[in-house]
Amino acid sequence: MDTTTRFSAGQRRLHWLVFILVAVAYATMELRGEFERGTLARTLMVQTHFWMGITVLLLLAPRLWLRIKRGVPPIAPALPAWQAAIGGLMHWLLYAFLLVQPVLGMMTVWTDGKQVMLPFGGLVLPTLMAPNAELAHTLEDLHGTIGEAFYWIIGFHIVAAIYHHFVRKDDTLRRMG
Ligand code: HEM
Ligand code: HEM
Q: From the CA of 30, which ligand is nearest?
């Protein structure tokens, strides 16, 4: 396998796994409204949302470690400096999202006086914040706003990948494929 012109296998696996987890985290929140409060289906949606997000957070550590260790393979043909700079900025913004969004989610649950429960096991994550209804509201709003904003940013990321592959016809997407 060519590791000099592609992201390493670990980086590629993590990228696509996290993509799926983020998509499911979004989908469960979009779909939860279809189910009445208090029903099993609604609880399952919300719990799945929590656990997708927490898994994203856990996977961020090995992902960043690989990113630092393995770096980024060059794109051929090379990008103009300004495009490479925007790409780099976008990628760090996406990494920041993968850190901040799950943390805000957990903080929302804790300050709302609730617990993050491990599905089916009855185990509970340690609650690191005291209940505070006002703060819970603010955090939930922020979590919601960032969630909305990243529809656009992730959308831009996907459009950029399509542009590179089909319009510019470089190897940006193949490096991650
Ligand atoms: C990649 C990770 C995550 C993404 C993309 C994400 C995204 C979202 C979105 C789009 C909403 C809907 C906001 C709205 O309808 O106004 C939401 C709500 C929420 N999220 Fe997350 N979230 C993530 C992780 C988490 C985690 C880890 C937790 C907690 C453990 C969490 C807890 C919540 C809560 C409590 C709500 C409000 C639920 C409700 O109104 O019933 N989120 N999230
Ligand atoms: C259909 C969906 C997606 C496609 C086609 C896609 C495509 C790509 C491609 C081609 C790269 C390499 C870019 C480069 O090196 O210049 C990349 C990198 C990256 N992607 Fe995605 N992506 C998708 C979804 C996502 C999602 C949902 C996230 C996270 C929210 C994400 C986060 C990242 C990050 C952080 C990098 C930077 C890698 C690095 O340079 O360290 N991607 N993506």
A: 1
- In the reported structure, the alpha carbon of residue 82 is separated from the centroid of ligand 2 by a whole-number distance in angstroms of 18
**C-alpha closest to that of 176 among 72, 91, 80:** 72
What span, in angstroms and rounded, lies between the C-alpha atoms of 55 and 80? 36
Answer whether 0.85 is exceeded by the pTM: yes
Residue 117: predicted pLDDT: 81
- Measured between alpha carbons, how far is 52 from 48 in angstroms, rounded to an integer? 6
- Model pLDDT for residues 47-106, shown as the tens digit of each residue: 999 999 999 999 999 999 999 999 999 999 999 999 999 999 999 999 999 999 999 999
Looking at domain 9-168, which of 1.10.12, 1.10.10, 1.20.950, 1.10.3470 is its CATH number?
A: 1.20.950
Q: How far is the CA of 119 from the centre of ligand 2 (A)?
A: 29
Verify whether ligand 1 is closer than 6 Å to residue 146 (CB atom): no
Domain ranges of the chain: 9-168
